[in-house]
Amino acid sequence: MKKIILVLTAAALAVTMCACGGNNNGGSTESTASSVSSAAPAASAELDLQKALEKVKAEIKMPATTSDYTAARLKRTFGLDEEKVAEFAGMFCDDGVTQDRIIYIKAKTEADVPFIQEKLKNDWEATYNVIKNYTPEQAAIIEKATVDTDGLYVSLVISGSADEIKKIFKETVKA
Questions:
Q1: Sign of the CA dihedral 36, 61, 123, 10?
Q2: Band of the pLDDT at 1, cuts 50, 70, 90?
Q3: What is the pLDDT of residues 40-74, one digit of tens each?
Q4: Cα 144 to Cα 1, 128, 163, distances in angstroms
Q5: How many CB atoms lie under 10 A from the CB of residue 34?
Q6: At what angle do helices 49-59 and 162-174 cross, to 10 degrees?
Q7: Are 76 and 23 a contacting pair, CB within 8 Å?
Q8: What's the pTM?
Q9: What is the pLDDT of residue 24?
Q10: DSSP 8-state secondary structure symbol assigned to residue 110
Q11: How far apart are CA 43 and CA 47, in angstroms?
């Protein structure tokens, strides 16, 4: 009986995650970036977030199919919109089971950074709280995630390859 309930619960979670997937428009520029404003300068050089994401896509094999974050998905998942976000790029596994995701965000102002950090952390914790009882392997990956900041830039990487992804991002930033 426990196995049946577990399977049904996992299936319901998978359907729910798929339903939240939204439309994938193939990663067009509309889906991955909003306009860049002339906000306060970042601690590091200006970054091309989409370029960093494309390099990660080229070098890291994700464990499932992925979709790029759209502005609508960014709002639905994290509660963020162009009011506080100058630019973003990211992708997530869309199979309904694998929790890998990468999101890079440039805040409009320094005052927006803590708000964005909190939103990413809230999503990370909510994902962990749902998954920890169903897929321990995914929960272990989520536990190791961190919300990182550098000036106006905030990122969240949930992946078994997180260290490699962060290294690629840092190398891209320096380039």
A1: positive
A2: low
A3: 333 444 578 999 999 999 999 999 999 999 999 99
A4: 33, 10, 10
A5: 16
A6: 130
A7: no
A8: 0.72
A9: 38
A10: G
A11: 11
DSSP assignment string, the chain: -HHHHHHHHHHHHHHHHHHTT----TT-HHHH--PPP--SPPSS----HHHHHHHHHHH---SS-EEE--HHHHHHHH---TTTEEEEEEEEE-SSS---EEEEEEESSGGGHHHHHHHHHHHHHHHHHHHTTT-HHHHHHHHT-EEEEETTEEEEEESTTHHHHHHHHHHHHH-
Angstrom distance (rounded) from CA 133 to CA 75? 27
pLDDT band (50, 70, 90) for residue 175:
low
Better-predicted residue by pLDDT, 75 or 19: 75
Helix (H) or strand (E) holding 125: helix 113-131
What integer pLDDT is reported at residue 43 of this predicted model? Answer: 41
Which residue is listed with tokens 């798929």? 18
Dihedral angle sign, alpha carbons of residues 81, 109, 50, 120: negative
For residue range 6-36, what is the model confidence (pLDDT) as tens digits?
Answer: 555 655 555 455 444 443 333 333 333 332 3
Tokens representing 50 are 């989409």
Cβ 166 vs Cβ 157: under 8 Å: yes
Please give the pLDDT value at position 9: 62
Place of tokens 């080229």: 58
